[in-house]
């Protein structure tokens, strides 16, 4: 008996999917794609064929059992695929398997439906076009017309065997009624087919969340769990996070300025070019100012900065920057800055990510500012926010884009004081962690800054005084007797007689003591 060779894979070309599929679908085997209404089954089936034509030069056959060919052409056109052109070129063929008038009644005997004639038409279309891929949408509309489950399973085995003999890689779509109850509507399809993919379209907290899960690839490994995806008008079916990160071949040793000389010194001479920095702090403490300074650090260089704000409009951001002597209009005119202003409620988190991805592809920035990530918490779950962060960090690391992310402090200090947003420990996915905090004293509030981590670089361990005026942010001397900065309730352990000016140095208390500010 001859030993069988390893099972080959067929890359689908669907963005992000081949990463979680560990290379693609099992070559020459049928795959069941099942999901509820609106989960993206037809889109997956269309794109499987379209990417085969565009990326690999592999013709395809689309068997439609529910929608008309015109409807499929229209859906494909919305994703940028010109099926009519491919039909004229002989690279795409339709086979209409929809029931004709009078055939909608349930089938009680096998002979009532001629599968042999349908298989002959599919075989003819494959041979005529030289197809390597076939999508059958929706197979459940045909198999579901049998009333007996035993007959249904037997006929399904016969059809699948016939499709295997044609030497093509096949996608069969099927409907299901519940998101997390069973795999398929009839409970037989997943046992007959070698491979099963489940698409979900779950409503949580008033928002739809689409996910894809590979339930099984018989004889082949794959990545488990649910993966977020979206259907983008520009890129089609996109799995987010983008599968697995593909890190750069080397770690950059080039430093770039944060736009603030004092902060540059604190982080060891500036940020590494491939670094992702997290700046966290309460409202009004200076996060946006720091982000704007970082963006303006690209002025006078050959760098570009993409500034994404979820809190303000473009004009508000320009006005605020001008109050600190930062002129965004000049940078925009010099093509050194692109501002993307979107409120969180305007789109889903995955669509916000796709907007960022498109901007990165079109504008090719060297720097990115996300201000502020915490605004997305208003409209997303913790899991969706984590998906967004992982997708973002994956993208910028691959392209070596220096990135500054701002986040509001939640008032919690998990993991020994590490900053979090929406329950996510953000410091675990970033390289540099910076905290801006208020320090309370009797009758006054002062700002403080600390660098918690700077991977691959020595950094300042002091908690330093911060002042803000119309010239921007100034980082001063270390603050004495400061406690509980990491917990978000920073205060002086003693109250010195403070000088009158906000920029004056902190002095030791007089011999007579004075009022004290208790550590909270």
Second CATH tier, the architecture of the largest domain: 3-Layer(aba) Sandwich
Please bin the fraction of helical residues. 25-40%
How confident is the prediction overall: mean pLDDT?
Answer: 83
Derived structural class: alpha/beta
Q: CATH top level of the largest domain?
A: Alpha Beta
Number of strands: 26
Q: Report low-confidence residues grouped into runs of 5 or more.
A: 104-112, 410-417, 497-520
Q: Strand order of the main beta sheet, please?
A: 5-4-6-7-3-8-9-10-11
Distance between the termini: 78 Å
- CATH homologous group name of the largest domain: P-loop containing nucleotide triphosphate hydrolases
Instruction: Report the portion of residues in β strands.
Output: 25-35%
Rg, rounded, reads: 29 Å
Strand count, sense and barrel status of the largest sheet are: 9 strands, mixed
Tell me the overall shape: elongated
Q: How many structural units, i.e. domains?
A: 2
Number of helices: 15
């Amino acid at each position: 008996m001859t030993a069988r060779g390893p099972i080959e894979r067929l890359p689908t070309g669907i963005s992000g999917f081949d990463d979680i599929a560990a290379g693609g679908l099992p070559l020459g085997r049928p795959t069941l794609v099942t999901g509820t209404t609106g989960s993206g089954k037809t889109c997956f089936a269309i794109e499987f064929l379209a990417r085969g034509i565009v990326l690999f030069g592999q013709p395809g056959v689309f068997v439609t059992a529910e929608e008309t060919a015109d409807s499929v052409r229209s859906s494909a056109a919305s994703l940028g695929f010109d099926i009519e052109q491919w039909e004229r070129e002989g690279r795409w063929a339709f086979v209409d398997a929809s029931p004709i008038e009078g055939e909608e009644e349930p089938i009680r005997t096998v002979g009532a439906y001629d599968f042999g004639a349908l298989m002959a038409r599919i075989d003819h279309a494959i041979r005529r076009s030289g197809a390597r891929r076939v999508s059958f949408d929706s197979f459940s509309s045909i198999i579901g017309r049998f009333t007996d489950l035993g007959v249904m399973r037997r006929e399904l085995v016969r059809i699948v065997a016939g499709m295997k003999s044609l030497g093509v890689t096949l996608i069969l779509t099927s409907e299901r009624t519940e998101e997390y109850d069973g795999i398929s509507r009839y409970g037989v399809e997943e046992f007959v087919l070698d491979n099963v993919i489940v698409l979900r379209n779950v409503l949580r907290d008033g928002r739809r969340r689409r996910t894809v899960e590979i339930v099984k690839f018989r004889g082949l490994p794959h990545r488990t769990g649910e993966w977020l995806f979206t259907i983008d008008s520009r890129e089609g079916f996109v799995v987010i996070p983008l599968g697995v990160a593909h890190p750069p071949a080397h770690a950059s040793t080039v430093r770039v300025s944060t736009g603030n000389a004092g902060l540059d010194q604190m982080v060891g001479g500036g940020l590494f070019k491939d670094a992702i920095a997290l700046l966290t702090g309460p409202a009004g403490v200076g996060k946006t100012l720091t982000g704007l300074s970082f963006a303006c650090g690209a002025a006078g260089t050959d760098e570009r900065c993409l500034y994404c704000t979820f809190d303000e409009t473009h004009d508000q951001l320009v006005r605020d920057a001008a109050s600190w002597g930062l002129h965004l209009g000049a940078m925009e005119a010099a093509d050194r800055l692109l501002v993307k202003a979107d409120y969180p409620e305007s789109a889903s988190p995955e669509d916000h990510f796709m907007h960022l991805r498109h901007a990165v592809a079109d504008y090719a920035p060297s720097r990115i500012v996300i201000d502020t990530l915490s605004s997305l918490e208003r409209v997303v779950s913790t899991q969706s926010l984590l998906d967004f962060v992982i997708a973002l960090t994956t993208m910028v690391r691959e392209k070596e884009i220096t990135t500054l992310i701002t986040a509001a402090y939640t008032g919690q200090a998990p993991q020994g004081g590490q900053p979090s947003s929406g329950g996510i420990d953000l410091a675990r996915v970033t390289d540099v962690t910076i905290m801006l905090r208020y320090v309370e004293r009797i009758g006054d509030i002062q700002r403080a800054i600390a660098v918690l981590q700077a991977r691959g670089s020595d950094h300042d361990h002091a908690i330093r005084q911060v002042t803000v005026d119309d010239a921007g942010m100034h980082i001063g001397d270390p603050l004495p007797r400061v406690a509980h900065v990491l917990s978000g309730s920073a205060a002086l352990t003693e109250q010195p007689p403070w000088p009158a000016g906000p920029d004056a140095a902190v002095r030791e208390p007089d011999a007579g003591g004075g009022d004290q500010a208790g550590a909270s």
